[in-house]
Amino acid sequence: MDQFYHEVACAACSRLRRRCINACIMRPYFPPGDDLNFINVHFTFTNNNVERWITLRETEEQKRDLVRALKWEAGQRLFNPIEGSYAVCMRQRQRITELNAQVQFLLMMVDHFNQQQ
Ligand SMILES: [Zn+2]
C-alpha cells in the first residue's frame, strides 16, 4: 500500500524521528513548529499514552479538548514540577473562599441596611 508522507513532519513525528504519514494522528494537535508543546506533553504523559487517549475519544471536539487539557497540564507541571495543576486548584479554592467571605459580609450589610429602614 502506498503511503503518503508529509513533506514537513508534524512536531510529534519530528521529535520522535519518524516519517509523518498522511493519517498521522498527532498532526492536527501538534503541527509543524509546535515542538515545545509536544516535548512538554511527551515528557509528562509519554507519546504512547497521548496517542491512545486521542484514539479513545470519539469526536474531533473531544480530541481537541483532550489535547488542550494535556498541553495545559504539562505546562503547569513544567512551571511547578512539585504541585503542577494542584497548585492552580488550591489558588482557585482560596480565591473562592475569599469571595464567599465577601459575599457573606455584603449580605450582612444589606440585611443591616434593611433593618434600619
Ligand atoms: Zn506526524
Break the fold down into its secondary structure elements and pairings.
Blueprint lengths: L10 H5 L19 H11 L1 H10 L3 H20 L5 H32 L1
This protein binds zinc ion.
Quick structural overview:
The chain has 117 residues and is mostly helical.
Can you describe this structure?
The protein has helices at 11-15, 35-45, 47-56, 60-79, 85-116. The mean pLDDT is 95. 15% of the residues are buried. It has 117 residues and is mainly alpha-helical. It contains 5 helices and no strands. It is elongated. The chain has a domain at 86-117. Zinc ion binds at residues 9-10, 12-13, 20, 24, 26-27.
Q: Strand-residue fraction? A: under 5%
So what's the overall shape?
Answer: elongated
Helix content: 55-70%
List SSEs in N-to-C order.
HHHHH
Number of strands: 0
Described by strand count, sense and barrel closure, the largest sheet is: none
Which structural category do the helix and sheet elements fall into? mainly alpha
Distance between the termini: 84 Å
Helical stretch tally: 5
Mean of pLDDT: 95
Sequence stretches where pLDDT stays below 50 over 5 or more residues: none
Ligands bound, unique: zinc ion
Gyration radius, in Å: 23 Å
What labels describe this entry?
mainly alpha, single chain, binds zinc ion
